[in-house]
Each structure stands twice: as structure tokens, then as C-alpha cells.
From TrEMBL:
Membrane-spanning parts: 12-32, 44-68, 88-111, 123-148, 163-191
Keyword Membrane (UniProt): yes
Coiled coil location: none
Highest classification ranks of the organism: Bacteria, Bacillati, Bacillota, Bacilli, Lactobacillales
Entry's Gene Ontology molecular function annotations: transmembrane transporter activity
Keywords, sorted A to Z: Membrane, Transmembrane, Transmembrane helix
Protein name (database record): Uncharacterized membrane protein
InterPro entries: ECF_trnsprt_substrate-spec
Amino acid sequence: MTLNRKQSKPRRIALLGILTAIILIQNFVPFLGNIPIPPLNPTIIHITVIVAALTMSTTDGMIIGGIWGVTRMIRAYTMPASPLDLLLWTNPMIAVVPRILIGLFTGWAYAFFKRLFSEKDKLALASASVVGSFTNTVFVLLFIYLFYGEAYAQAIDVDMSNLIGALGVIVGTNGVAEAIAAAIIAPLITIPLRKITYQK
């Protein structure tokens, strides 16, 4: 089941444009796409994708996620921060697919939690946001392991036999921090944004 919100076409196009601009700014302006909490560096760009899915539709969330992925690839080619950027983020399976899946899984999760918590929409929004956040973390790390496991293990100075454990630590630290941020921030943005984007 996907989300299908009734909106006028101009409003939808305008909001897609605004969210696309936010994605671009978050990707290319330092510190606007991440929360610097040493030793963690959780991203908040995924929250923009989650908001798109919760405010507009599952499809629109997937579109914004795809835009994030393509933008991340462009940044890896043009502004690589390390050799790992060129290794990992130029692969669309790592850069693009997980970001599209954020929109898909957020929309599916919200439809499920909306039924489960029928009288508590904020809880449904927060729960779906957590699912969307972990979708990004888990699929990015899964594809890194599948495609570049040995190279990534060498880059982070971990034995290949211990790589799964190292990736699990990332999920338990950055992944949890990102999920908490999404659960708090996404509903706070989504609820008022719906009031101006829904067509009565």
C-alpha cells in the first residue's frame, strides 16, 4: 500500500522543487547535511526524503531519494573527500538504490503504522521515520559489504573476518543516532507542512 495524497499539480511540482533544492544544499554546503556529534557524524539528509514520503506520497519520496543518490554520485566524482568516495559513492547500487528505498519503505511503513496506531498519527509518523532511516543505513552498509567488502575492510583497518561486526557497530551508533533524529524531526516538519500542501 502506498500513500496517495490529494494535491494540486502546481503544489506538488513546487514542493518537489523545494525539496530538491534542500537536498542540493544539504549535499554541497558543509554541516547542513550532517549533525557533528563526535565521534559520530550522523546524516540528516535522509530526513528530507522521509518528509517527502510522509507529506506527499511514497512515489514522491522515492523521487527525492533518487535525486539525493544522483547528487551524491556527482559529489563523489567532482568533490571526493577521500579515495573511499570514488570507490563507494560512484556505484549507483550504493549511492542511489538505498536512497530510493527510503521513500518506498517509509511509505509502506507509514501505511502499516497508520492502521496499527489509528488514533496516534504522530506515533505512526515517528515509527515510519525510524524505518526509513534504518533502510538507508542497512542497505548502504549491505551493498558496501557485498560489492567492496575487502577494500572497505582494508580502508578502515579491519580484518575481513571482523567486517560484519564493524558494520554492526556503525548501525548501532550512527544508525541509531540518525533514526532518533528522524523520529523527532520528520514529524515536526511533516505535520505543519501537510496543512499547506493538502488540497481540501
